[in-house]
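Subject: for your reference before the review

Hello V.,

The reviewers asked for a structural picture of the protein, and I figured it would be easier to keep everything in one thread rather than splitting it across files. Below is the amino acid sequence we used in the manuscript, unchanged from the supplementary table.
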Amino acid sequence: VGVVVARNGQPVWADLFASPSLFAGYWPKLLKSYAVDALGDNTSEKRPTVEEASAYLEARDGTISTTTQAGVYQLVKTEHPRYAVFELRDISLAAPLRLHFNKMDR
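And here is what came back from the structure prediction:
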């Protein structure tokens, strides 16, 4: 459950959550930050296609670093010249669960 945000027809930000309730808890703050980020930079009302949004989510090349709190969480960061990706995983479960995926253009 989540959102891909576009500016001038290009995906530039994404937030995905493990559950609708987790997404709902963050949505008001996320919406405000998306709006502030877009101020003064909107030159097009073009919307990306589903395929373009999917391609944005799937592109994850870059330098990967991992921070782990054993038995609790794992934070995986991917640094790319064009974007950064952060994935927070709950590793206390038998099957690790991705709690939050965030991708932002630089």
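For the response letter, the relevant points are probably these. The mean pLDDT is 95. The chain is about 25% helix and 40% strand.

Happy to draft the paragraph if you're swamped.

O.
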